[in-house]
Amino acid sequence: MSMLSMLKRLFRAAEEAYQDEQLPKPKKPAAKKPAAKKPASAAKKPAAKKPASAAKKPSSARRKPGTASHSAQIYGEQSIFANPSAMFYPVPQQIRQMRTLSGYNNLDGKRSMESLFYQQGKYMENFTDDFPDTVQCGRSVPMYYNLKDNELRAYFTWRTRYRMGAMPPAQNAFLLLYAYEILNLIGFQSAELAYDALSQLLRDYGEQFPSVKKSLLRWIPDFAAYYQQPYRLEDEKEAAAITVLRHSAQTAKDLLLALDTLSKYHIKNSKLYLAEPEQVSEIVKAVYKALLTYYAEKKEKSFSAYLLGEQQRSEHLMFEGAVFYQRTLVPNGDYRLSPLCVYHCYQGRWAKETFAGSPNAARIGELLRTIDSMLREQLGFKGKLKAGELPEGDAEVIRKAIADYFEEQKRKNVPVITLNEEELEKIRQAAEHTTDMLTLPEDEQSEAAVPAPEEPAEDDDDDGELPDLPLSAPAMALLICLVTGESYQPLVDAGQMLSVLADEINENLYDTFGDTVIEMEDDNTPVLIEDYAEDLKGMLET
User: Fold this and answer.
1) Sheet with 333-338, edge to edge strand ranges
2) For helices 113-123 and 172-183, what crossing angle results, to 10°?
3) Torsion angle defined by CA atoms of residues 68, 72, 75 and 76, in that order, rounded to the nearest 10 degrees
């Protein structure tokens, strides 16, 4: 320990001991002795008169209590230095000079706290300090003039370290005072740099000081509108609301997390979501789209507005709760910060227009809880959940949307067989080679030919022409089988895929009928649609 530190400690101890000695100590009342009884025979002697010249001694204890001059305090000698340690921390000259500033407002010729704050702040904007003591400041609206010298020095020391890139321990008063400086561009050459500093202050200390965070989130959009700076989303709830409004351009997971941020019920912590995150996200998005359509068509209102709040416009006090000195008037105009917020300025007066500015956490929570509950029921998930309370008709829409989702997934999961053209060519070449090997040369055929007895010709239509339809031979054969009721098993035995042939028929005849003529059952069985049976029969007989 240095000699200077030891001397400071001794001074403080001496001062505390001296102050304790100066406190008045209560006097103990003297015990009264019982008076001795005088004998009855003793004659009462007349009291001796005091000489008139004897003057009464002044005594404060003899004054009547309750009078203006009465005091029980006993004053003694006091040290010339009320605070001996102050001799080691003299107040810097710049702080003393700052306190002499008047705060005169050049715009209206009046004194104001805002103009005084700005004048003193500009005077001290580059001041640095290294005050060693820790001082607690409890000011709810801190300004230079209402802080004591040691509080000011502690603040300037904190500001010096923070500007140098450190993260010194802070307190509400220091953070608010520094925010006031940023709002007034005290210590900043441009509004862009000040805006960055305001956002950085929120990131550095917002989580530790919730009340300061709330104020900064209110002032940041005001700052962007007033100084016409590009607005950056700092509020996670505002970002979530924009994601919900732009749901069509978002992934299913982003939409679910945005709703969860605004919700009272957090589905992202649900056991079902943790087990099936992708499927739950897709269903939430499908349900949201279904409810949008239902509200627009049946209820003639916006489902997004039901969840996030209606459009509102009202007068707005810029930088409410802060110390802000308006030096110039902002030009009239509209300042759109985001899809949710527009500022309007006219002759120095501001109005704020918000879209989806008041998300209803309870309504969103009931929606997500109901989806979670119905989805567990659909999947047979262990652990049932009570559904939320929703407006009439919403639950039926949610249930149908979930059922439609699973039906669509079933159709998508039907196996699709892809034919490789190169493999087909190889098979075709192999078949041709086999045919060549089994075919005899012409000279051998003539030698081996043996006249056979003629048999009566059968009555068939082999020499007839096939119907003029844009179909391959296997597809034509399948169509004829379905129209006539004949078995198409030979096609299956020949390795033909019925689903591929059915698709070929539907695709080539779509221009004629404007619809599919063959449907595939769940067991992959082709079925002819009855409405087109007669027409197809007529086409085949032509």
Assistant:
1) 312-315, 349-354, 341-346, 333-338
2) 90
3) 160
Entry field: residues in the chain: 542
With pLDDT > 90 as the criterion, what percentage of the chain qualifies? 43
Cα 70 to chain centroid distance, Å, stands at 65
Instruction: Say if CB 500 and CB 450 are below 8 A apart.
Output: no
pTM over 0.85: no
Name residue 501's beta-bridge partners.
none
Token pair of 97 as six digits: 């000079």
Identify which of 258, 275, 249 has the alpha carbon closest to the alpha carbon of residue 368.
258
Q: What are phi and psi of 343, to 5 degrees?
A: -100, 140
* Partners of 111 in the β-ladder: 104
Q: pLDDT tens-digit profile of 322-338?
A: 999 998 889 999 999 88
Helix axis angle, 252-262 relative to 361-379, nearest 10°? Answer: 130
In terms of DSSP H, where are the helices of 319-472? 361-379, 394-412, 421-438, 442-448
Each residue's pLDDT tens digit, 274-285:
999 999 999 999
Q: What tokens were used for 407? A: 């039906």
3-state helix, strand, coil in the chain (%, to 5): 50, 5, 45
Distance of alpha carbon 262 from alpha carbon 255, whole angstroms: 11
Q: How far apart are CA 105 and CA 118, in angstroms?
A: 10
* Dist CA 296 CA 304 (whole Å): 10
Q: How confident is the model at residue 192 (pLDDT cuts 50, 70, 90)?
A: very high
For 59, the token pair is: 């005594």
Provide Rg for the chain, Cα atoms. Answer: 48
Q: How many CB atoms lie within 10 A of CB 202?
A: 22
pLDDT tens profile 223-271: 999 999 999 888 888 889 989 988 888 899 999 999 999 999 999 999 9
Phi/psi region, residue 169 (left: phi>0; alpha: psi -120 to 50; beta: rest), is beta
In 10 A of CB 94, how many CB atoms? 13
DSSP calls for 516-536: -SEEE-TTS-EEE-GGGHHHH
Please state whether beta strands 312-315 and 349-354 pair in parallel, antiparallel, or not at all (unpaired): antiparallel
167 CB burial (10 A radius; 0-12, 13-18, 19+): exposed
Contact (CB, 8 A) for 361 and 262: yes
pLDDT for 292-316, tens place per residue?
999 999 988 889 889 988 888 999 9
Q: What sign has the CA pseudo-torsion 478, 480, 485, 490?
A: negative
CA distances for 147 relative to 103, 251, 541, angstroms: 16, 52, 104
Lowest mean pLDDT among 117-126, 200-209, 296-305, 468-477: 468-477
Give the Cα separation of 168 and 156 in Å (integer): 12
Q: Output the six-digit token pair for 536.
A: 């197809």
